[in-house]
Amino acid sequence: MLKFRQFIAITSLILMVLVPMVCSLYAQPRIGMGGGGEGGDDFSMNGAMGATIINGKSYQYFSLRPDIPIWKFGLGLDLSFYFDEEGNLREEDWDETADFIDKIYYIRYGKPGQPLYVRAGSLEEITLGYGLVMRRYSNAIEWPQVKRIGLQTEMNFGRIKTVALLNNFREMDSPGLVGGRISYRTNIGLPMIFGATVMHDGNQFLGANDDDEDGYPDYQDMFPGDHDDEEIEEIKNIPGYNEIYTRSLIERGLLPDIYNQPLTINEQAESITEFCVDVGIPLVNTPLMNVSVYAQAAQIADRGRGYTVPGIIWWIKAAEMVSFQVSGEYRIFEEEFMGDFFNYSYEIERVRWNPAGNAYITKEQSLEGIPSAQGFYADLEINLFKNMFVVYGAYTQMAYDDEDLPSKAFYSSASLNTEFIPKIDLVEGYFQQPTAEKLFSKDQDGTVIGYRVGATMGGGVMLVYDNKTIYYNGEPNKIMTIETVIKFK
Length: 489
Fold this sequence. Notes:
- By secondary structure, this protein is mainly β.
- It has a domain of about 325 residues: Porin (Beta Barrel).
- The protein contains five helices and 23 strands.
- β21 and β22 form a beta hairpin.
- The longest helix has 24 residues.
């Protein structure tokens, strides 16, 4: 079995040969690249060594993260090798064909806004239309503990624009989360944009953790760490097997009730579908200012409807140094409706464990009994001095008839260009609460808190501290890494 020190020695030798060759290749003039296509960024590669915790177990890791642009294409890889406390390679990351697909962080063609844009792998910050159905969705919220390979496409031809989305190729059989949007730009006295969105999750239970991959969610798993069906088959094939004696063991709590197995994730499948139509009117469209008004109407199948009337987006740019965008909308929700249903933390909200009821609850089931409500949504993004300081904040407050229901939601992020700070190369942080009775109460399910700080060590080496905490099922789940990043460029 490959040991950590052996791996580092072999990898170092490969890098001594590979990196100069690749850097030399990309240092040459780009001939035949179609006149400076969208692969304009140089090849870059980060190497990292550090420590992390996966499923409660500590690992040392070494990773290479090349970012390779070729004409209109782009490829990002995550070649990570995890070693346990004894120096053994975490083999479950490399023993199946699907594991090699996981090493692809993303593949893309084109860029958003171009005639064709396709991205496969990690998906981040996706908002469809004006956001009533999907806002700032990401399939990478639990990365690197959970890796999802999704697909996003965007096509622009004439007045028509289409966007399609798949959260995870591994969930296609159900299917998992899939959907898209189509919009049409026209002018009937006023310039107008008409749009329609549909999102469908074929099985919300796919959001339940299944660490041993036996098809049974962790909180209902009879034999954690082992394949339940195989374990039960082995018990029944033991020489001298006796059902009466086995049932006596079950009654005394010495054996799980193998005669009443729980349903698998696929057997518990519950789907949800949401539709939305919208219209937008651009009032001002200049290089220094854009102003648009809009309205939306959405329906969650077999549940309620929601409306935003009116909504406004105002973007302004002051010279080349400052820009900001502010938007706001008034919301009217019927019973059993939730805005931004497919949000940033949807992948961890799809289904959650309810200890009191000893059962899983889907996000759709959480809509049951929600009364009608009215309120507002507003967000603000400020960009100072060409990305020197970028801050974003979004706030929602709804007035429900039931005062005990969580009525607030908040999302914020900030990043700082650290060129003027000695020895610091990276500073960014974020905080999100999709539902809360009281803002900044950290134990609220779906709350995400995180930050990253990078210190320059010299010679292209940076030490990065990455800390993220996700709260679900009433417990904090921490994802923390300390890594040494080596930049090759």
